[in-house]
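thread: overnight batch results

M.L. [08:02]
morning all. the overnight job finished for the chain we discussed friday. pasting input first so we're all looking at the same thing
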Amino acid sequence: MIKTLKMGGKEVQFSTSLSWVWVYKGQFGRDPLFLLMPVVKSLLTVIPSLVDAKQTADKKAKSGGGEAGALDVVAELTGVDLDQITDAIFELELQDILNLIWAFAKNADQAIPEPERWYQTQEIELDTFITKFGPEIIKSCISAKNWRSLQGLFAPKTAKSQPAANRS
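M.L. [08:03]
and the structure it wrote out:
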């Protein structure tokens, strides 16, 4: 999937189709999944809190006529949640994150220059990128069936989806 994100007043395209893995490995010489999987594993425990925080932030923003941003979601998290998230993020180096972003851009546009030169011409907003592309990155690494299952794990429960014994 190709998405466009405005960065520093310029529109930049990013592709999260699985070929980004080959782009990354071809440029940096290592498999990016070895970087991402420890982070994903660490974040699995906090995903339900993130989903709840996003839903709460969206409701508040919608009632005010706006759209929830990354800081609105963070404001809804507990200190423990924030500790878990920062611990997971600190498993990556900033350069690793920038390299991942470059690989998604290069995957969408082969004219993108070498990473160091590209970084010098971009104003990368990490929070915006992660908010917009985090789910897409995970989605590109797993099957559609597993993606639907993962979404189902964290979807809000309704009375219909709960076992009969748990309904009141």
